[in-house]
What does this fold into?
Amino acid sequence: MTHWPPQPLSEWLIAFVDYGERHWWCRFLRRGFRHVFALGYDPTTEQWVLADAKIGGMILRPIDGPTADLVIADGRQHGRWLRCPAWHRGPAIPRPCLTCVGMIEHLLGVPWIASWTPYRLYRRLLEAGAQPWFGGG
It folds into this structure.
């Protein structure tokens, strides 16, 4: 990397899906919105970045173009995508917990404190100006 310190990405693709780990609380989440993850393109390194919080930990890794195409195609088939700007102006207090929703809120630096569920995050992002990319709106 030739640029230090690294700058945050200005835009992310946010996927809302049903697949993934099944836990008891999934029955309380809206169908089609049981998990959320992000995919971003870093023009500085010319790589895609996958960000996905799971119960066992967080996946944050660069992926190549063909792998990003597979992730996007799979997300198109199983969920909805939003194209979101990164606000980078989050609240000056810690967020409540690091779930998949909390991780996306941290990543985008949204100005609110907590959405709690993927569907609520989806609605808030649309209200804040995110654009449907694939899979509905």
